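[step 3/7] inverse_fold.run input=structure_tokens len=95
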């Protein structure tokens, strides 16, 4: 397995994990009081948007040639850091 393929698999696994965490947050939001639900759903929508952006970056990486993927790595790492931090932050605010 190449370094690129290994990196892609790692990113996909993390993206899948965050998707599961966002689903858990959605379940918590459904059980929240009405006034909190609106804020929670707004945060979930922002997380889904970030998740879609990260998935787009992963698709771009998969389409990149073996010699070009290193150039994309910094931008992808930033997107993953942002999404990971946002998921952690949202999880700490959901009651």
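[step 3/7] decode complete -> sequence:
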């Amino acid at each position: 397995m190449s370094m690129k393929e290994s990196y892609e698999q790692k990113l996909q696994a993390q993206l899948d994990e965050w998707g599961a965490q966002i689903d858990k947050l959605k379940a918590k939001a459904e059980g929240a009081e009405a006034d909190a639900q609106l804020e929670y759903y707004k945060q979930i929508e922002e997380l889904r948007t970030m998740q879609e952006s990260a998935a787009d970056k992963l698709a771009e990486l998969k389409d990149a040639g073996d010699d070009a993927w290193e150039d994309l790595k910094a931008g992808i790492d930033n997107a993953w850091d942002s999404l990971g931090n946002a998921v952690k932050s949202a999880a700490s605010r959901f009651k």
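[step 4/7] annotate
The longest helix spans residues 34-63.
The chain is about 85% helix and 0% strand.
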